[in-house]
Task: inverse folding
């Protein structure tokens, strides 16, 4: 799409019927204008300032399709004032070129087998300040400023000389669908897009693999990783803990690594940030890149984490099995399914919405009330009376207000969770017995099954995009960044910002939870939280 100076090439379309919201970000003037019009299949014509229609410095474009003119309307001055943004702040990514002497190589890398001489990114080379607007939804009362993320993609100039690049890849924390896809595409991008021939080290078993003599690194090649995306898990293995900054830096120096790719959640990203800081402190010209991985989908700022959609899809099989057990075990069969979700109930919520068969969904963000007017047990009894059976989905971190918090922690410092699934099974049986009703409760725990399957088609593509853009960023000299999807566009995010805002949680008074209540018809116990507890949550989605 061609641009219209001084507006930069950062265009967003959010379609609702034939209405479209367009946000234009100007790097020069730091101004953003929003307007509504019909869906645009072609770029709008060049525009000029509209006198008296917007605050000074804003560029407002009017565009109408003859065909859809009846569906289009011009904004009033009041509308423009509500939507206008006076300042857009670009969240810059640290670049090694500001500290170290770079190769200053033009990005003319070619795909393997290409003989035309054209760049692999002949029409997509970006500038360091190309941005994607974060807060594209505007309403009256919002401050007239917004964040802008650095747009992900190949840059015109490379900081590293591709032929001399030596990289390392490590996967940390729990498993997640798509890990092998990310590893595979990182290797292929380094070899085929940039022809990095100096070697790619695969660090085995998480951070401990940098210094564990019993788990030596392996050399990753396109041939070795060719078929790994068809398998779940990670070819490198993974673990929690093992972070030793001095030993990790020693490995990077000894092997002359200049690009380090770290795949993991918010805890892993905290470690990645420390590595990046230490590299700069010691004068090491090393790009440290994160790729967010969390089965719980609780890394903040990004639209979603890879593998999440696959896990929600895999959870459907467990819910269907629970429903079959509940229907067939007479009388009053109840199936209980425990899904992952340490502090956020995204998998449980999305699995519930996708299934349509769930009668009760319990998540960490909303307190569990067993009995009384808003009790979940009376609700289950009512659903069983109506249908003859019921299905319950519970996130593993739900119910701490009933069971208490465990003092034990794992190697990553995460608190060990109480056995909420077994607790619910027992409480359901006791309640039905107290009501003089027989019941058969079947408990299914597919927690580790939903995270160890291969990525589905959507996540497979997403993993490829994340990995390719991670390599593009590292080659350009960016460091201490992670790559993710924001407003359906790939961006580079400063790792300190990601770890400061994560983990995010489900909004207990938001639209998504409202949809769950509509599906399950369960009583809304979010009102038990009170305004203070709701507003004290770190980040909502």
Result:
């Amino acid at each position: 799409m061609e641009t219209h100076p001084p507006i930069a090439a950062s265009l967003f379309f959010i379609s609702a019927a034939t209405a479209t919201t367009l946000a234009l970000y100007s790097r020069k003037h730091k101004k953003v204008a929003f307007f509504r019009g019909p869906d645009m299949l072609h770029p709008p014509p060049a525009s000029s300032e509209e006198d008296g229609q917007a605050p000074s410095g804003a560029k407002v474009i009017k565009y109408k399709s003859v065909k859809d003119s009846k569906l289009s309307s011009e904004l009033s001055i009041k509308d423009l004032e509500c939507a206008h943004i006076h300042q857009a702040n670009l969240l810059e990514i640290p670049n090694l070129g500001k500290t170290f002497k770079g190769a200053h190589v033009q990005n003319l890398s070619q795909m393997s087998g290409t003989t035309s001489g054209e760049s692999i990114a002949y029409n997509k080379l970006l500038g360091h300040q190309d941005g994607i607007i974060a807060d594209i939804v505007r309403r009256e009362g919002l401050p007239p400023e917004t964040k802008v993320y650095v747009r992900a993609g190949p840059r015109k100039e490379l900081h590293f000389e591709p032929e001399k690049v030596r990289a390392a890849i490590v996967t940390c924390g729990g498993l997640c669908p798509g890990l092998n896809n990310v590893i595979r595409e990182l290797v292929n991008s380094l070899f085929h897009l940039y022809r990095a021939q100096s070697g790619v080290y695969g660090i085995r078993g998480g951070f401990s693999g940098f210094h564990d003599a019993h788990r030596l690194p392996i050399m990753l090649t396109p041939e070795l990783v060719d078929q790994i995306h068809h398998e779940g898990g990670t070819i490198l293995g993974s673990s929690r803990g093992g972070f030793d900054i001095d030993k990790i830096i020693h490995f990077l120096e000894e092997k002359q690594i200049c690009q380090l790719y770290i795949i993991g959640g918010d805890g892993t990203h905290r470690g990645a940030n420390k590595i990046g800081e230490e590299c700069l402190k010691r004068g090491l010209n090393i790009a440290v890149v994160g790729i967010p991985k969390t089965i719980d989908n609780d890394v903040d700022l990004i639209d979603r984490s890879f593998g999440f959609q696959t896990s929600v899809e895999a959870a459907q099989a467990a819910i269907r099995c629970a429903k079959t057990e509940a229907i067939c075990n007479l009388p009053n069969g109840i199936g209980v399914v425990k899904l992952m979700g340490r502090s956020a109930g995204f998998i449980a919520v999305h699995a519930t919405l996708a299934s349509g068969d769930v009668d009760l969904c319990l998540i960490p963000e909303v307190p569990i009330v067993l009995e009384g007017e808003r009790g979940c047990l009376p609700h289950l009894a009512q659903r069983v009376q109506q249908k003859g059976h019921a299905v319950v989905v519970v996130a593993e971190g739900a119910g701490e207000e009933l069971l208490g918090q465990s003092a034990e922690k794992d190697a990553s410092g995460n608190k060990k969770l109480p056995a909420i699934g077994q607790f619910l099974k027992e409480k359901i049986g006791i309640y039905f017995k107290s009501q003089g009703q027989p019941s058969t409760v079947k408990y299914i725990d597919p927690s580790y099954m939903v995270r160890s399957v291969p990525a589905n088609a959507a996540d497979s593509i997403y993993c490829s995009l994340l990995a390719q853009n991670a390599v593009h960023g590292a080659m350009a000299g960016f460091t201490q960044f992670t790559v993710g999807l924001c407003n359906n566009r790939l961006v580079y995010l400063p790792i300190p910002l990601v770890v400061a805002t994560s983990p995010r949680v489900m909004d207990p008074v938001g639209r998504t939870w409202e949809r769950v209540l509509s599906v399950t018809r369960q009583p809304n116990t979010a009102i038990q939280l009170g305004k203070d507890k709701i507003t004290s949550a770190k980040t909502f989605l």
Notes: The longest strand covers residues 19-25.
